[in-house]
């Protein structure tokens, strides 16, 4: 399977690149950060450096893939970054995936959208208390996506 991991330079992305390539998937990492130094060079992993806020670059990265795993998100506190880059990039990924008929799209959100836990364990039925989250703008953007 041809997999694109968006946010590949992050901790989860680095782990997934390694794990999926060891399971013989055709893996491409995509991130605005350079390829992590910790990347195992013996694994057959391609790496693209680019920004998902750029629709052209995003389309090129998505084309020919079977699955997109979207891990990329800033942890910013300003609306311009959150909505001008993160949400815009999310939309670019969704549009590219749709136009190329991508079979699977996995988007990772965050428990932050639930705010302070009113019960444990926190499940998807928990109320979303975005305005009470420790980073409300971040929570709102992840919830929006």
Compile the SSE list and pairings.
Elements: E1 2-6, H1 11-22, E2 26-31, E3 45-49, H2 55-62, E4 67-70, H3 79-99, E5 104-107, H4 136-144
Parallel strand pairs: 1-2, 1-4, 2-3, 4-5
Helix pairs in contact: 2-3, 3-4
What does this structure look like?
With 145 residues, this protein is an alpha/beta fold. The protein folds into two domains: 2-108, Rossmann fold (3-Layer(aba) Sandwich); 112-145, no CATH class. 34% of the residues lie in helices and 17% in strands. It has four helices and five strands; from the N terminus they run βαββαβαβα. It has helices at 11-22, 55-62, 79-99, 136-144; strands spanning 2-6, 26-31, 45-49, 67-70, 104-107. A five-stranded parallel beta sheet has the order 3-2-1-4-5, sandwiched between helices. α1 (11-22) links the parallel β1 and β2 (26-31). α2 (55-62) crosses α3 (79-99) and α3 (79-99) packs parallel to α4. It is globular. It starts with a strand and ends with a helix.
Percent helix range: 25-40%
> Helix tally?
4
What name does the CATH topology of the largest domain carry? Answer: Rossmann fold
Q: Low-confidence stretches at least 5 residues in length (pLDDT < 50)?
A: none
Order of helices and strands, N to C? EHEEHEHEH
Name the overall outline.
globular
Assigned CATH superfamily of the largest domain:
NAD(P)-binding Rossmann-like Domain
Mean pLDDT: 93
Tally of distinct domains: 2
Task: Please give the order of strands in the largest beta sheet.
Answer: 3-2-1-4-5
Query: In what range is the share of β-strand residues?
Result: 15-25%
Number of DSSP strands?
5
What composes the largest sheet?
5 strands, parallel
Sheet/helix structural class: alpha/beta
What is the CATH class name of the largest domain?
A: Alpha Beta
Radius of gyration: 16 Å
How far apart lie the N and C ends?
Answer: 25 Å
């Amino acid at each position: 399977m041809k997999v694109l991991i968006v946010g590949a330079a992050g901790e989860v992305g680095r782990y997934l690149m390694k794990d999926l390539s060891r399971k013989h998937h055709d893996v491409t990492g995509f991130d605005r950060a350079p390829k992590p130094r910790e990347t195992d060079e013996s694994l057959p992993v391609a790496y693209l450096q680019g920004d998902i806020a750029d629709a052209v670059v995003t389309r090129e990265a998505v084309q020919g893939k079977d699955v997109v795993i979207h891990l990329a998100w800033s942890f910013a506190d300003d609306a311009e970054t959150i909505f001008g880059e993160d949400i815009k990039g999310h939309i670019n990924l969704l549009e590219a995936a749709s136009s190329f008929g991508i079979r699977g799209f996995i988007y990772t959100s965050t428990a932050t959208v639930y705010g302070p836990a009113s019960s444990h364990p926190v499940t998807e039925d928990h109320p979303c208390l975005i305005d009470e989250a420790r980073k409300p703008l971040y929570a709102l953007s992840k919830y929006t996506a």
